């Protein structure tokens, strides 16, 4: 019987956050420069908004995790810190998706919600316009929908889902350290029309949940061995992080 292909474990060496050291400062690639300029057109303060959110929430979320998991990074004299940094640029798997897109396509992609609203708005006007001739409205709607169709062919969401790696932030479990990618957060928050602050908080919580579930010590001061963590089923590691992310988000909703 054909068996389903096993997904690579969480710490598979092909995963960008399985590196033994943090990626060093490197020159921005062409696609990163392109994306940074476009993001700055829409919101020159985006990086600052992501940084401010991290500063505001870092300690609060760590407290929530400690309470929820009953895990500690500090037990007696043994203390472990998980440094966190907001970095420019895109993680490798996301850069590969952006690389083939030209500037015009990328600009339209970053305005996907606006294009959808425009098309719906034009259709609404054509139906309810007091003017008898709606030919121009229909023509404009066709142009916008043609752009939308072109963007749909790129299947961004499907490509992102197929990566199976954290790409908005990452927990480098061998270092250990967390990186948050503000440009990736900008890209996704714009295409999905969500608040960058809200997305940053969830990403931060998710990566901290990875770090605490891995490095935190339980009541007997035991912790997850790094090699065992690396070879664990990715669904289990991600499931744990997601469980705590959702639990804490729900508790803070109301
Ligand atoms: Zn994750």
Structure description:
This protein is mainly alpha-helical and 254 residues long. The chain has two domains: 28-91 and 170-254, no CATH class; 102-162. The chain is 59% helix and 7% strand. The chain is built from eleven helices and five strands. It has helices at 30-42, 46-69, 92-98, 103-110, 112-128, 135-154, 156-161, 182-192, 196-215, 226-231, 234-251, and strands spanning 74-75, 78-79, 84-87, 169-172, 177-181. The strands form two sheets. It has a three-stranded mixed beta sheet. A two-stranded antiparallel ribbon has the order 1-2. Strand 1 and strand 2 form a beta hairpin. Helix 2 packs across helix 8 (182-192). The longest helix is centred in the N-terminal third of the chain and has 24 residues, at 46-69. The chain is elongated. It binds zinc ion (ZN). Zinc ion is lined by residues 166, 206, 210, 238, 241.
